[in-house]
Amino acid sequence: MMSKSKTHHPRLTLIALALISLVTHAAEKDDLFGDDLPKASTKPAASSRPSIKGFVQFELARTVADPDHWSKMRTRADLSSQGKLGSNIKWKLGAHFDYDAVYSINDYYNADVKKDQRFDAVLRENYIDYSAGDWDFRIGRQNIVWGEMVGLFFADVVSARDMREFILPDFDQLRTPQWALRSEYFKNDFHAELLWIPVASYDNIGKPGAEFYPYQPVPVGFNVRYQQEARPERNADNMNYGLRLSTLKNGWDVSGFYYRSTDINATFYRDAFSEPGTLIYQARHDRIHQLGASLAKDFGEVVLKGEAVYTKGRSFTSLNALDSDGVSAQNTLDWAAGLDFTLPAESRFNVQFFQRQFFDYNADIIPDQHENGFSLLLNSKFFNNWDVQALLISSLNRTDWLFRPRAVWSFEKNWRMVIGADIFNGPPLGMFGRYDQQDRVYSEVRYSF
């Protein structure tokens, strides 16, 4: 399962050179902006005239592994508006629109990937809120966030995700809202939440040939073919529903939930017998149960957070060539605990430990019975308008990690520029090592309004 990790010194040199190049391009863009850019109005919008808010962002990324290539030249417009229909009724509409020129300027990607990722129009949150006493109701397309650990998802099990860039985008852009009816009850320090999702959304994993497609193991001497993903039928059997209860006692914010769903994550089922010498994979979605809990406590300059989720019914890829469908059902417990430290000079340090434990463990699957890991995040502000951070997420079972340095420059009101790098290392079957050839540097320029 493990392979020897190769040195990254040559690629780190390439990354440094590419970062310099991106900064140069960004500086040229800064000159082009000039001093006559429109500024966002500070005048409050009239209540009878809901304003449109959002941002326009240009994103540039270059993959520096062999072969190096431009992997993103995307322009994104994220727009939303909200208002009231009365004293107890509120509404929100939102969408974003993408055009990625990288799929028009080179032949690195196949036709399916170009078609999937060149243009995109996605509904974001679109809902109506109604309040009645201690009850709040929200119906429509919405994000439901049940967990907020750094860098990874644990108790945040409801919203689907756009995984075409793995877990690299900001989580508010990564999440895909669900069409849901959510009822919330508030009484003193108690909060109850009932959730029903009649038509679910699922993770978008993209098309084979994309930069971060989740390729499956292929033994030497075999061919591979990926069938179209099998999305669940829209019927009563595939509806999702859940209950979450939370309370605040003596400064402890504690919650627990039950969620019954068709998994937002894809499981790749394998057919090794229909075409001798060819493995046929198809992404499907298992029906699962999840029990979870979270806690948080503020100790002044230190904040403690923890999350745990028990999942029943999810299947995992099996390396046993004689397995008829190439997967093994495994019940798991995922947990994470973290400490967030407030440091001098407007700095912050976060450390997390996490684990996935498999029950009735099948040794033919890729992970170990106990998969352990940690993350470190250091964030600091410089010169009032610079924010720099570095995030490391790593396995403790093997050399398998993701390192993400990043700097944000708020150079004008409503404007920001980001430069950073995403560096992967590990064995071919590792969580991060499978993307060992997708190291990239990137830059973003955003105007918010």
* Biggest sheet record: 18 strands, antiparallel, barrel
| Sequence stretches where pLDDT stays below 50 over 5 or more residues | 1-10, 12-47
| CA radius of gyration | 23 Å
Beta strands, count = 26
Going by CATH, the architecture would be Beta Barrel
**The CATH topology:** Porin
**Share of residues in strands:** over 45%
What's the overall geometry? globular
In total, how many domains does the architecture comprise? Answer: 1
CATH first level:
Mainly Beta
Helices and strands, in N-to-C order?
Answer: HEEEHHEEEEHEEEEEEEEEEEEEEEEEEE
Distance between the termini: 49 Å
As an assembly, this protein is: single chain
Q: Number of DSSP helices?
A: 4
Give the proportion of residues in helices: under 10%
What is the mean pLDDT? Answer: 90
Query: Which class best fits the helix and strand makeup?
Result: mainly beta
Describe this entry's structure for a reader.
The chain has one domain: Porin. It is globular, with a radius of gyration of 23 Å. The chain has four helices and 26 strands. The strands form four sheets. The chain has an 18-stranded antiparallel beta barrel. Strands 11-15-14 form a three-stranded mixed β-sheet, with no helix packed on it. The chain has helices at residues 9-33, 102-105, 111-117, 171-174, and strands spanning 52-63, 69-84, 89-100, 119-123, 126-132, 135-142, 160-161, 175-176, 178-187, 190-199, 223-226, 240-249, 252-262, 267-271, 278-284, 287-298, 302-312, 315-317, 327-329, 331-343, 347-359, 370-382, 386-395, 401-412, 415-425, 440-448. A hairpin with a 3-residue loop joins β22 (370-382) and β23. The protein is mainly beta and 449 residues long. Mean pLDDT is 90; it is low at 1-10 and 12-47.
